[in-house]
Amino acid sequence: MTMGRRGWAWLALAALLCIAFLRFCVRFVPADAPVATAPAPGSRAVDNGELLIPVEGVPASALADTFTQSRAAGARAHDAIDIIAARGRPVLAAADGRIEKLFWSEEGGRTIYQRSADGRRVYYYAHLDGYAPGLREGQGVRRGTRIASVGSTGNADPAAPHLHFAVHAMQPGEPWYRGSPVNPYPLLARAR
User: Fold this and answer.
1) For residue 94, what are the CA distances in angstroms to 17, 22, 49, 81, 142?
2) Which Gene3D superfamilies does the entry mention (predicted)?
3) CA separation for the pair 182, 137 (Å, rounded)
4) Average pLDDT along the chain
5) Which of 6, 20, 39, 136 is the most buried (most CB within 10 A)?
6) Which residues lie below 8 Å from residue 22, measured CB to CB, with a gap of 6+?
7) What is the pTM of this model?
8) Rounded Cα–Cα distance for residues 189 and 61 (Å)
9) What is the pLDDT of residue 70?
């Protein structure tokens, strides 16, 4: 069986279309490449300071500086702020960076540790109700990207869902669970 001129022409056209499709429509990405996602369309992020307020729709006027309050009957300092919000309210990345660790702990419940793009800070989000679909360790995130939802997991009062948000200054090579506490309140509410 031989192929005539029309057969060869159709075969050549099909090959060209396949090459054009692969060139302009398909992007090959290594499996371990970071995934940067954009903020959700229509999200209402509030940006009043150096960092984005990490709960959608919460204004700076609703924040309270609870950084130095004692916890566990005075056994430790809070070293974070609590952002009160309805269960399920979107939690947003406070800055560009990478998801360092998704972790469950007795105190924090469902948590996220996010390292800043420059590696100098780790942002800690705790008491989460759930992670955003597809969120994974190593994933790159942009400021304002939905990463989770507000909840009351861990030792949080189930009747008072909130985001426990902490910032840690990191030294080069320091692991996600270390760092020195930094008060997030002025970083979130600077323009208040």
Assistant:
1) 43, 36, 10, 13, 8
2) Glucose Permease (Domain IIA) (2.70.70.10)
3) 23
4) 81
5) 39
6) none
7) 0.72
8) 8
9) 58
- Tell me which H or E stretch contains 81: strand 81-84
- How would you classify residue 119: left for phi > 0, otherwise alpha for psi between -120 and 50, otherwise beta? left
Q: Is the pLDDT of residue 22 over 90?
A: no
CB 78 within 8 A of CB 67: yes
Residue 124 pLDDT more than 70? yes
For the chain, domain boundaries: 60-190
Give 45's DSSP letter. Answer: -
* Mean pLDDT comparison of 12-26, 67-81, 118-132, highest-scoring range: 118-132
Note the pLDDT tens digit of each residue in 43-81.
444 444 489 999 999 998 889 888 777 555 555 576 889
Nearest of 128, 52, 62 to residue 90 by alpha carbon? 128
In angstroms, the Cα distances linking 46 to 78, 91, 119, 127 are: 24, 12, 24, 21
Kindly state the tokens that stand for 23.
């060139």
Given CATH 2.60.40.1120, say whether it is the number of domain 60-190.
Answer: no
Token pair in block for residue 82: 């609590």
